[in-house]
From TrEMBL:
Residues 5-87 form the Methylated-DNA-[protein]-cysteine S-methyltransferase DNA binding domain. The lineage of its organism: Bacteria, Pseudomonadati, Bacteroidota, Bacteroidia, Marinilabiliales. Pfam families: DNA_binding_1. It comes from Saccharicrinis carchari. GO terms for molecular function: methyltransferase activity. This is Methylated-DNA-protein-cysteine methyltransferase related protein. Keywords: DNA damage, Methyltransferase, Transferase. InterPro entries: ATL_DNA_repair, MethylDNA_cys_MeTrfase_DNA-bd, MethylDNA_cys_MeTrfase_DNAb, WH-like_DNA-bd_sf. GO terms for biological process: DNA repair; methylation.
DNA sequence: TGCATGACCTGAG
DNA sequence: GCTCAGGCCATGC
């Protein structure tokens, strides 16, 4: 489970994303109890750069599996390379079989 | 203190 | 099936 501020919760959830898996802003927002606050999730991730721990923000995509936050990374295709290095296939800034690799934070509750 | 914005999502037309 | 508009909450100026 996660605890603390919304930002911290987002950071924790993102860090809990299994290797080779991805999730969406809405899923995280919904998990935190604010389904409509998906925008804030992106904010937290953007701010994650200031965080002490390295947060795999590249595993967080939008609902379409699109690398919406790609631009926030230092490189052009850093996000894509990271995903590909985890066994995922990125085509046109979009994860192939996104739903297949999709990971819902709510799965933690089921554990 | 108040308005505008932001790596989005969902519902309605 | 696709496009437009609204909403959500916190941060920044």
């Amino acid at each position: 489970m996660v605890e603390g501020d919304f930002f911290k919760q987002v950071h924790q959830v993102v860090q809990l994303i299994p290797y080779g898996r991805v999730t969406s802003y809405g899923a995280i927002a919904s998990y935190l109890g604010s389904a409509g606050a998906a925008r804030m999730v992106g904010w937290a991730l953007h701010k994650s750069g200031a965080s002490a721990k390295p947060i795999p923000a590249h595993r967080v995509l939008n609902r379409n599996g699109l690398l919406s936050g790609k631009a926030a990374f230092p490189g052009e295709n850093i996000m894509q390379q990271l995903l590909e290095s985890e066994g995922l296939t990125v085509v046109n800034n979009q994860v192939k079989d996104f739903e297949k690799y999709f990971w819902d934070p709510k799965e933690l509750d089921d554990l």
